[in-house]
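S1.2 Input.
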Amino acid sequence: MHIDPLEKKWIQISLGMVSLFMGIIMIDALFHGVNAPSNVETIDSRKIHLSEEFAEENLGVQVAENGDITVRMVAGRYAFFPKHITLPAETRVTFRWVSMDVLHGVHMPMTNMSTMIVPGYVSQIESSFPRPGEYPMLCNEYCGLGHDHMWSKALVIEKEEWQATRAKQAAVLNTTATADEESNNE
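S1.3 Output.
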């Protein structure tokens, strides 16, 4: 079988391009942590409000005992819930998203956060904010006529200010709990 020299060159160029792209994908996967989503959790979109994790009182920013920060949010026509959250700068934050109706997307300009929110699944993404400021969360998947009004905001403050605010909140909760115990003992 005879292959024309020009065809050989194009085959070599094509194989070289495929090898280059495969190499870039491997480098990103191994050294930069760029991978396909692996957190595949399902949820019944019709019963989100009844789920313990995404019940209304559990939405927003939550800090675990070990200091991990998790933000739980719900996307629905035509809003993200809650509308405003406050986060510390220079800290890894885990976002967990669910959709109550149709396909949505969320993008935060000037960060690495951009994901699709598929009905029936929990979308999880980790991000951090290098500097304080106000970061908008925008829907980047067309979801209907009110799509352009679908947004939320994250206020990012200095880590020290965040810790001081958390300490004040804890002191208020302890004072309230102590007052409740005293009233129950009487």
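S1.4 Remarks. The longest strand covers residues 69-76.
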